[in-house]
Prior knowledge:
The complex is a heterotrimer of chains A (291), B (592) and C (346). Chain A has 291 residues and is an all-alpha fold. Chain A has helices spanning 10-32, 63-69, 71-98, 103-115, 119-130, 134-161, 164-172, 176-212, 224-230, 240-266; strands at residues 271-274, 283-286. Chain A has a single domain, classed as MetI-like (MetI-like fold). Helix content of chain A is 66%, strand content 3%. Chain A has a two-stranded antiparallel sheet with strand order 1-2. In chain A, strand 1 and strand 2 (283-286) form a beta hairpin. Chain B folds into three domains: 1-91 and 176-243 and 278-308, P-loop containing nucleotide triphosphate hydrolases (Rossmann fold), CATH 3.40.50.300; 95-170, no CATH class; 372-390 and 409-584, P-loop containing nucleotide triphosphate hydrolases (Rossmann fold, 3-Layer(aba) Sandwich), CATH 3.40.50. In chain B, the strands form four sheets. Chain B has an eight-stranded mixed β-sheet with strand order 6-7-8-3-9-10-12-11, with helices on both faces. In chain B, strands 18-19-20-15-21-22 form a six-stranded mixed β-sheet, sandwiched between helices. In chain B, strands 2-1-4-5 form a four-stranded antiparallel β-sheet, covered by helices on one side. Chain B starts with 7 loop residues before the first strand and ends in an 8-residue tail after the last helix. The relative contact order of chain B is 0.10. In chain C, helix 1 crosses helix 4, helix 2 crosses helix 3 (70-79) and helix 10 (242-249) packs antiparallel against helix 11. At the A-C interface, helix 5, helix 8, helix 9 and helix 10 of A face helix 1, helix 2, helix 7, helix 8 and helix 9 of C.
Amino acid sequence: MRGLRFLGTGRGRVGFAILAFVVAVALFGPFFAPHDPADILGAPGSGPSSSFPLGTDYLGHDVLSRVLWGGRSVLWLSLAATALSFVLGMAVGGVAGYSRSFVDPILMRLVDVVLSFPPLLLFILVVTSVGTSSLILILSIAVILSPGIARIVYSATREVSVRGYTEAAVTRGEGASAILLREIFPNILGPLIANLGLTVTFSVLLVASVTFLGLGVQPPNANWALMISENRDILSINVWSTLAPAAMIALLTVGVNTVGDAVSHALGLPQRRAITTVGGIEELITPAELV
Amino acid sequence: MTGPPPLLAVRDLTVELLDGQPVVSDVSLTLDAGQTLGLVGESGSGKTTLALALLGYARPGMRIASGEVEIAGQHIALGDERAARAMRGRLVSLVPQDPSTNLNPALRIGAAINDIVREHRPSDAGDAIVYDVLGRVRLPAERRFARRFPHQLSGGQKQRVLIASALVCEPPLIVLDEPTTGLDVVTQARILEEVERLHRDREVAMIYVSHDIAVISQVADQVAVLYGGLVVEHGATDDVLSRPRHPYTRGLVSSVPDHTQPRRMQGIPGVAVGLDELRRGCPFMPRCEQRVDRCASEMPRLSLLDGRHVRCFEARLTPPPERGELRVPNVTSEHDILLAVEHLTAVHRDGRHTTVAACDVTFSVPRGACVALVGESGSGKTTIARAIAGLHPPRSGRILLDGAELVPRAQKRSRELRRRCQIIFQDPYESLNPRRRIRDEVARPARLLRGLSKTEARTEVAQLLEQVRLPAHLADAFPAELSGGERQRVAIARALAAQPDLLVCDEITSALDVSVQAAVVEVLADLRSRLSLSMLFITHNLGVVAAIADYVLILDHGVICERGPVEQVFNHPQSERAIELLAAAPTLRVAA
Amino acid sequence: MSATAPAGSEVPVEAPSPEARAPHPLRRFLIRRVAQGLVTLLVASVVVFLATSAIPGSPATAILGRNANPQAVAEINHHLGFDKPIVDRYLSWLGDALRGNLGNSSVDIAQGATSAPIWPIIRSPLADTTTLALVTVILLIPLSLVLGVWSGLKAGRWQDHVISTVTLVLISMPEFVIGSLLIAILFVASHLLPPVSLISPGVFPLLHPNILVMPVLTLLAVSVAWTVRLVRVGTIEVLRTDYVQMARLHGIRERKVLRRYVLRNALAPSVQIFALSIQYLFGGVIITETVFNYPGIGSQLVNAATSHDNTEVQAITLILATIYILINIVADLLVMVLVPKLRSSS
């Protein structure tokens, strides 16, 4: 696959290594955790020692164990939100882009409305009234992310639907679903892949941010973002309680973004940045960046 | 040699990619003051690179490796960008190809021209010189016009501004790189006229780069033909074009369509050589019909033959250009109608603006005939084609295929009707799905519209590829591996897979090189006679019309202003528009 | 050659230039855009209202807990006006808001206060956040323009590599991570700055610049990185255009080419880019204020949300969404004014 060429670049390799490391910790960390992350085992806020290599946190849990356990929820929530956002965005953007009827402006105005909110605000709004849960988290973040995907799918679909081969299919009398599946979808993959990395990054950032604010996963669950907010008060006493999970989140997002950037660069794809102005100037298209 | 030294002397100029691959090799030319040299070549020949090198400029990724360029006794600095820049504008200037991208969108045109003046003639900078040069290119010499931004100008006006920019510092040499590409035929003719006038009045020497031999024959005193970055033939225009000595030049001349001398167009077999495929011997060798063993291993040098320079070992053997007779079409009768278009009106809605593309258009295509629909961009011809194909529902009117009405949308038509009418589009790079292999793409209409099974379709594909003169192994390829001409032939094969009665061709050769165009038109003409196809051929090129069509309809802003058999319309045009178009279309002017 | 143009005519007859057609395109766009913005605002207000008030019983239940006395719940609901039909509630809420009355805090009402107007509660945090945002933006614009253009001009070379890598890392990191790292470095390790930005309400933040430094740095870190990348790409794009090449082919010296041909066009999309950045700041501000306990509208919002104070969340969200949309409109209008070309194509 041409995309795998990114492993040839320095940036691609470093990014991949970072990402692989973080994902490994997130997925397999729990098998290596020395203690139960929810057990209060020591004095709160004590520094690194032989039994607690990273010290204890604000309640007395072993920081290392919590770090090893804390990646899973971050990972699965953001991936689920990303997947759902792609499904939503592709459905809305594809239908709007292909149909030339009244459906088009209605759907895209809907997209504009969602985009007219600062992302975090929408989430806070929802949580205030219905409370929080994993499902709500995933749904809300998916709704926040999907307009970006919808915009990209919309413009890519419109572009492809006027190409010769698509029109040839229309004159052959092929049905709308056949055309969407055989002619359009395979040819809009490019921009979608280019945005996958960026969307996953946003997703992780959003999940982490809302969790940090206390609106996501709740204690005593081990979660990297939650750990940072929990341990703010003992920052000066045991800096590891905050630094370790912060480092993990940073590595995750940097890894994802670097790999995404390198892959789109290897595929020679422009990175479209949909401007969030409502009904205003549409897109600020940025070409694939020079290495 | 006595007499004044040449104005331009180029010696052994070579331009390479940064990795050493040559783009232009060992080019040597001379030009006297006041003369015009035509530089002819198709895509990939290196002609634009050569034109830029005359200004001491190499595009990013390339460098001028060796050689000399001397203009009016001064050497153009070829490696030193800063020194070269001081000479540009003053000694030599360029009129670029695309007017829409070569003007700074943030500057008013008067200010942009003054920028150039300030650089080379700072004491003359000001309004006066801007108005003067605008007047010379027949643009309004007034403040209101000079304060316009590029986006407020039409294509032709922008091109004139670029010509004015090239003239303003009065250089003795001007290089024009395809300055009329992308403009409509009538505007082209006007710009050409402008160029010729300036050439006559000011004694400016010009280098005119073009792929259009007909234009070159009108404008240039000498011509140099480029292939694979090498000059393959060079001499007086009349000599070279009337009796070419290099097989490639011969091929080119045979490919040029000419509406004043209709004849069969002869393409050049094979595909133009890519930069990375250049080998040790003659670059044209793979496509040459008079090659010998020596051609593969040795590079011929330019030698004098018949009053011009040729780069060919076997130049003596080159036969005269083909002037084949047109095929006799088997049109059964003018009254046996296959396609009838009645009072068709079609509009374009663009936000709040509605433009009428076609207004009450009525015409018919007799069975077995080829009807050409001619007009400028915006004349409505593409809209009519799309309406027939079922892509553009008309506002009113009827379209009948063999008496059966074609409903506006293709999806609602019966399978049989969809099968019988096939359309081929203009852009070869968008006509094939990049994700499907050629064989699947070509087989699709056969399977969908004729109900063929997978195996049956496979055999069909092989036959069809042969009919369009493509090698069978291309069936397994993806479109990205094919050239423009090959893709267009695949599009024809795909259309034929449905075994249609009517083929609608929408400007299918406009995006192709001359020799490739000739090959495609030849294939079509051949298929037409063998399969008794009827065709609606849309184009703006009158030469192609003469080569393939029986009847012609001339469209002007959505209205048919003239119609009739091709010969009659071309020789005795009645309407103003037709006369204008025929006069503006370039023809090959050479002493017989 | 043909005599297509009659002798003596100065101007060849060609297609009328695009400008001639549309009268006052700018004014028409202005009206259309503002109207669009108002419609969006309206829809946004509906969304805000529905999201916080549509679920019956939940505000009071959320505040008092699930096992609360049903009578107490009903009483609070009545006091908060929750027993009226939803359309009436929306209209009266909207009407009040337009007149400046943002309602009472649900939590305070639930805890027994007879009236607890929201506006005085949020007035001061709003001002503090504005100060924070303004300081950030004032630093953001020149910094990112200079770095972005410079990095674009040096594209492919080591200076550009460094900037690209650093910005890539910065835009990947969440603000709270950056904030925490800054605290770790600038406070824990070196005691240079206070870890929390506590000031009494009503005190003007600029009088105590220490507390602004880390929040501003945190916000700048990510927003500068984003903006630099966009400006950089815009610059590279311009450097590759035909008209820049043409200017060089006309012999214009490089300094002038850079100034009049490159910079002028590279900076053209800046308004849109900065509008994007300011929009980003909305989310960033909420997080950053929480990290540093900065008494701004962001932390106010989070507190209100965690305590389920519906009306306060409603009010703050409405204000923030309104400002967000207004900024969009202003940015679009500014672009229209600055880039004449767009007027004919819209």
